[in-house]
Specification:
The chain is an alpha+beta fold. The protein is built from nine helices and five strands, in the order ααααβββββααααα. It has a five-stranded antiparallel β-sheet, with no helix packed on it. A hairpin with a 6-residue loop joins β4 and β5.
Length: about 425
């Protein structure tokens, strides 16, 4: 390695570690602010709380490393420009591409390391973190309730609350859906409430105040009933809510808890199921057409069919249509699952190689931010990372809806930012060449 390469990388190294530590500190502080009050003082051992924080930090590392790579590149080239070292190097005939080359090589190595981290360490950490949090939630059911989001902490119900008082455990503006009866839709709404165990820990007690119960019969929706209560208490069996470690082989992994190979295998399985369902739908449509043609031929031959025959024919056609509707829904579910798994598959690689993308973008940004110092460099870094993340979220939504292939939607932010970086590098190279003549 030449002296010039070592010098440029040395400028990056210190800034990279400083940015990484700072970003991790912000992430961990944000996590603690959100969850610490819900964990401390709930009878949990300190080692369990520390384990939760340590396991949750895995996804933080996956975001902090690319962000730190961007900040380090911007600040390093900004420092070289401010000290006129970049001008001296350029006047010596060294192109901007040669100056960026060691940074790109280091970023590529970092991307390869992050690919291994995203594929090996992060899935295991996410799996253990979710399993541990599920174990804690069984012991302290109130911990599993998030504000303004439905949760299934109570078996057979979905519950959402607008606000939670972590000091008293009081829940406010509660909406509870009863999923236990398929023939009746029950929605319970209450101004406030509390969820806790009975004194012997055998039952889970949900106490609601100032609420209403709405019931609607299904599927005809012809009967509706409304009840108002000042205070109501619901008692559930607390079996399985005590804290104990879940056996790993007894818990199914989610998309963020699988490696790329496992995600690809799951995606292929759902793709195969989707194709099978599609072929089944085509066959069902042909059967429906045949049945309708048979009915028409019989009607034409006898002028009018008896009522009993007509009724049976209508029932047969309705049953076939219902069957087709169910198959279409199944096919759509399989396609949605395929898209979900493929999005997670490509994210493991696209987020890892974001380190290289940010190095391409960061070098010209650092030169452009030479007059603004640290503030301008940090602001530009934040802007481009927010832009990248916004494009990633939009790409995920588009891929989930099937508008674009997951590969295109997830890699599109990398392509856009890489193209922007190369364009800025080209403009910067021409402007420096022009200024040097």
């Amino acid at each position: 390695m030449k002296i010039l390469d070592r010098y440029i990388l040395k400028e990056h190294l210190g800034t990279f570690f400083f940015a990484f530590v700072t970003i991790m500190f912000v992430f961990i502080l944000s996590f603690l602010t959100k969850f610490l009050e819900r964990l401390i003082g709930k009878g949990l051992d300190f080692r369990i709380i520390a384990e939760v924080v340590a396991l949750q930090s895995a996804w933080m590392v996956g975001l902090a490393v690319p962000m730190a790579a961007l900040v380090a590149t911007v600040m390093a080239f900004s420092s070289l420009t401010n000290s006129t070292e970049l001008t001296v190097m350029r006047s010596g005939g060294i192109s901007i591409y040669r100056l960026v080359a060691p940074v790109l090589i280091a970023a590529l190595g970092l991307s390869l390391l992050m690919e291994r981290f995203n594929n090996v360490l992060m899935p295991e950490a996410n799996y253990k973190a979710n399993a541990l949090f599920a174990d804690i939630t069984r012991m302290k059911p109130g911990l599993g309730i998030d504000k303004n989001a439905f949760s299934d902490v109570i078996k057979g119900y979905s519950i959402m609350v607008k606000d939670i008082d972590n000091s008293t455990g009081e829940l406010r503006d509660i909406v509870l859906y009863d999923r236990g009866r398929s023939n009746v839709r029950t929605v319970i709404m209450a101004a406030r409430g509390r969820i806790e165990f009975s004194y012997d820990y055998r039952y889970l007690i949900l106490t609601l105040e100032d609420g209403q119960v709405h019931e609607l019969t299904m599927p005809r929706m012809d009967r509706y009933r409304k009840m108002v209560f000042a205070k109501n208490r619901y008692v559930f069996d607390a079996t399985g809510y005590g804290f104990e470690r879940t056996e790993e082989e007894n818990r199914r992994r989610g998309g963020k808890e699988l490696s790329a190979a496992d995600l690809l295998a799951m995606a292929r399985e759902f793709h195969l199921k989707s194709n099978v369902a599609e072929r089944s739908i085509d066959k069902g449509i042909e059967e429906l057409r045949t049945q309708i043609a048979t009915i028409r031929n019989r009607r034409d031959a006898t002028d009018a069919l008896p009522p009993a025959v007509t009724g049976r024919a209508i029932e047969t056609v309705d049953a076939m249509i219902d069957n087709l509707s169910a198959r279409v829904g199944q096919m759509q579910e399989n396609r949605d699952s395929f898209n979900d798994y493929m999005v997670e598959y490509h994210k493991k690689y696209s987020l890892a190689f974001a380190c290289l993308v940010f190095a391409v973008v960061g070098a010209p940004l650092g030169v452009m931010a030479r007059r603004g110092g640290f503030g301008a460099g940090a602001a530009l870094s934040l802007f481009f990372f927010v832009l990248y993340w916004a494009l990633m979220i939009v790409g995920e939504k588009i891929a989930d809806r099937g508008v674009l292939l997951p590969a295109i939607a997830v890699w599109l932010p990398n392509l856009i930012l890489t193209g922007s970086g190369l364009f800025m590098l080209n403009r910067l190279s021409h402007s420096m060449s022009g200024s040097g003549r």
